[in-house]
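Interim report, section 4.2 (structural modelling).
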Amino acid sequence: MNGSDESNGAARPAAPRISMQFDHPLRQYPVAADLVVLYEVEGVAPGSVRAVERSVLWYTEGKGEEDLGVHHFERLDDATHVAEALPTGTIAVRLPASPLSYEGVVVKIRWCVRIRLFFATGRDFVSEHVFDVGDIAPALGMVERLQ
Amino acid sequence: MRLPRFFGKKRGHRRTGSQAWGSFGEAIFYAALVAAGVCFAGLLFSGAVGIGSDATAPAWSRWWLWAFTLLIPGALLAFGLAGVARTVRAWGKSEERRAAAEGISNLLESMGQSPGADRGHPGVPTCEDLVNSPGTILRYRLPIESPESWTLVGMGLFAVLWNAVLVVLAVGAGIDLLSGRIEWVLFAVLMPFAAVGIGGIVLFVRRLVLTTAVGTTQMEICDHPLFPGRSYDVLLAQSGSGVFRSIALTLEVEEMASFRQGTDTRTERVIVWRETVKEWTNLEITPGVRFETHVTVTIPAGAMHSFASAHNAVRWRIVVRGQPERWPGFVRVFPLIVYPATLTRSTVAGGLTLVDKVRR
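Predicted structure of the assembly:
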């Protein structure tokens, strides 16, 4: 699983596990392609989740402060919709023309699907699964550092 | 209820501290500012602090004093209320939800203010400022981004402001001298002031001569924005006089990241790709006749597009580096905007196939 699960808070009682299945091999998508992701949430007691947020976004990594751009966001916070979204669900969205995934020297751009669960106890849990948009060659290295 | 941790740890993207307690602390801080502002304003209006109560002072000076004094509680209230509102708005919301809300408000703003902005390419800066100057031979004249020019402007401003202060002090000292009084302290202060002022003028004039002596560099391009995999006709025109040991035209990609280090905000800029398009050596330019040449610039297929966000950027640029025989070398930068190669959909037998096609 090329993703990361994390919970907000120190003590974590039995963390849930979210797995995702992308519809493109190697999770590599061309620009403006349709992204379809099937997800499955395990380890969550029925009725314990108050809200679910599903988003498709890009963020920057590297030396600079993190910037974030949300392409798709939905929050399900009524019981009926939460019950429909768990334990399995689908996210289908058409990707934008930019920005493309990039592995630079001090700037990196990553695309990911995030699912965030808000529990009735006030705790939240987020699972992030990275994929690539476009096919940009990584930067080979630093040629010169500017003042 | 779990008590807050005062010392959190950073584990990758995650911090061990509670976000809710962090927001609560921030709200308390801003609420304290509001409370301080309210107390200060209350003291002023109740007359406990005797501002503007001097009946002998003229009315205009009392009002001026009032307005000036109200700045302090006013600033506390404005800063505190804005902070409280921001914290309340973000309370309990995930960063995705906040970013989505910001994205919608940015979109609404851009719809009202800049209809020419290309909303189809998030993260790619628009090139409106780069295509508003027509070229003499090719379609667009590229604006120059020269650090030398800003240095010159900075030096000029410093020389003007410093010497303006110097003149005011010198006039005062001169009047004293004419009336027979000699203020030794003032003269002692004026000497180093005058030395710095003269030094500022000398440095400014020297920089002005160096900047203008080698002549201007002009760049024109046949189209903008640029797309990966395509070639573009570029005109380079260099004016001036004398022999240039070399003039090199390079195409570069720069990455820029700004980050906080303690209380400072720092910016790191690195060149991650450079290609020499052409280099000329031992070039003699006669006054009044500029050196003009056409070159072809190719953006490699699969190259990263221009990107800009709040703290990170990927920038394309054409750079001209010149080395005149009798003057110091110069660097002139011309920014470019490169869009990502877009895909158009074409339905073929057996399903939907994506065809890579550059949008024109």
